[in-house]
Amino acid sequence: MHNGHQSNGSRAGSGHDSKTIVMGAGPAGLCSAYVLSKAGAHATVVEAAPFVGGLARTIRRQSDHGEFKFDIGGHRWFTKNEDLNDLFREVVADELLWVNRVSRIYFDGKYVDYPLKIASALKAVGPVTAARAVLDYGRIRAKQRVKPAEVKSMEDAYINQYGETLYKLFFQAYSEKVWGLKCDQLSGDWVSQRTKGMSLVTAIKDAIIPSKGKVVSLIDQFMYPREGFGRFSERMADSIEEAGNEIRLRNAVEKIVLDGNRVTGIRVRTENGSEFIEGDNFISSIPFTVLVKIMEPAAPQDVMDAADSLTFRDIITVNLMIKKRQVTHDTWLYVHDRNILFGRFHEPKNWSPAMVPGDDYTSLVIEYFCTKGDHIWNMSDEQLVNQSVKHLVEDLDFVTPDEVIGGFTLRATKAYPVYDLHYQEPLLKMKNYIQSIENLQYIGRGGSFRYNNTDHSIETGMLAAKNLLGEQHNLEAVNADEEYHEIKREQASVV
Q1: Which of 169, 276, 431, 491 is the most exposed place for a label (fewest CB within 10 A)?
Q2: 92-116 pLDDT, tens per residue?
Q3: Could you give the C-alpha distances from 354 to 61, 229, 230, 361, 398, in angstroms and in order?
Q4: How would CATH label the architecture of 19-54+224-310+419-477?
């Protein structure tokens, strides 16, 4: 579906003298402005919120026990792209930590490695189910060889990759918790994008006969800023302003004003009313479904209808402060149990000791996947905190009630683009329309309606800026490679 080439912006009005307006001060937008600022180009960032970092910011909370820091959902840093790694190291500089990653799935009272390591999964389910899983997988492979079935839904994709037994055990419940839809109503694209190259055969073969080029998993370790992932955005923002460029917070974009197939400026709502900001080039990380609806003159009706047919999933994090040295060893724990309302949590102290006031304390960021207006979203903050503590005490046996010394919630809309069965056509319609606008590029996860990891979102920001500095990059090619993006294969020696 990605046949549009989004490298517009490198054509007219580029170069160091032109003025670029970046819409959104999440990491992707800030990365664009950072790269432009470093090159000596003019950039202005506008952001509706009173802070930078978007969904990748770090919240600081004072308590009687000292300061706790919480990321909204964890954002670890790993990428195969060395240009991006260099940029991350340059920005985070002396605050950089390397963190050992341990992620597990909590399944049926047992723990399984995540991403799914087949040996660990088969061991957890016991010999009988394990044998059934392997037979199941063999059957589906044989069937595919005779007559390849079309993979449409998420259910098809998981069964095709792992067989029905493992799908029902490990993927179905969690996926439905995350997306709020049945797996047969979701597109298989999400699976191919997130689990490329991972299958039972690959795993078993790699265990018995190491394949050509040793698999080096990038996820055994990741980089992380000592004071929380939000520091990446904050430090970019500092550099942008030090270069003489501007970041305007509490500036919500109301309209993108067009003259033919070019943007002439944007109208923003500020604390003092409305203001028109002119520019030569425009980079947007505004949620894609919102972007096409704020054009002036308005986008064609079929494009507006397409935007109405796409949805995002929202998220609530419950952030708990705990007087205990450690709850788990995990950097992340995925909770598959249908009776537990939250989907996963991470323990910030396991990422960096600086996230808690001292050795005797820890904290948890617990993620509830929801949709604005549903039963989870409509729970009060107090109910959500109490529910989380109840699950941790009664179901998981991780804490005692008196160890929890405080908690608060954060609600974020439009956190994850939902790939339903019919998302491709409307998305393509919207992309074709936006790509016809010469001096507008779209970036980021929500901004491209693409389920990117953090590094991919930031990469689109970097490349959009480079397009304006005379290079030519197709932003649609980011995260379109064939291999699972958390795996790296060494061909020869890699230093």
Answers
A1: 491
A2: 999 999 998 888 888 878 888 877 7
A3: 13, 12, 13, 11, 22
A4: 3-Layer(bba) Sandwich (3.50)
